[in-house]
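Example pasted here:
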Amino acid sequence: MTDFWIAPSILSADFARLGEEVDAVIDAGADLIHFDVMDNHYVPNLTIGPLVAEALRKYGVEAPLDVHLMVKPVDRIIGDFAEAGASYVSFHPEASEHVDRSLQLIRDSGCKSGLVFNPATPLSWLEHVLDKVDLVLLMSVNPGFGGQSFIESTITKLETARQLIDASGYTIRLEVDGGVKVDNIGRIAAAGADTFVAGSAIFGSDDYRATIAEMRREIASATG
C-alpha cells in the first residue's frame, strides 16, 4: 500500500506565530512541512530563507522539512538549508547550470534530493538523473504565489511521471504543489501522486485536523 503524505505549506501560515502553527498542523496529522523559498529573481516574489528553518528546529520542530527552492542559482543556498535542518531539498532544472551536480550536492549535504517541474517544463529532464532523485515535484500552478487554481493538465503529467518512476525501479516520491484541496486531492492521488502540498486549503481552514482527515478520506476513496 502506498504511503501518502500531507505537506502543509507554511507560505499560508500565520508567520507571527509560525512555531505554533507548525506544531498545530503536525499535531493535526501532517507528515512534513513544506517550505516555499522564493528569491524575487527566479520567481516574482520574496519569501523565506534558511534562518526560518533553523528557527523552527531550535523551537523544537522535529518533522521533516521539505524545502522547495525557487531560486537561481541554487547551488550556493543548498548547503545553508542543509545546515539549517532541511530533510528534502528540491530545485527547478532551469535554475541550475548543472542539474546532475546540484542533485549530487544535495545528497552530499545529507538531504534527500528533488527535481521540480513547472507546468510547461518537460519531464525529459528526468531521464538521465533518476538514480540521483529522491522526489519529483510537479507544479500544478505557475510558481511564485500561493492561492492559485489547480492546472488540470497536471493530471496527465502525473500519470506519465508515475509510469517513469515505476519503470525506473527507484524509490522516488511523487509530489504535487499548487491548488491542492479536499475536492481534487482524490483525483490527484488516483493519477499517481503520493505527496500533497497544501497551503491555503489547510492553514485557511477553521480546523486543521478535520481538513487533513478529510483529505486522507478522499485519497483512500480514490485509491482503494
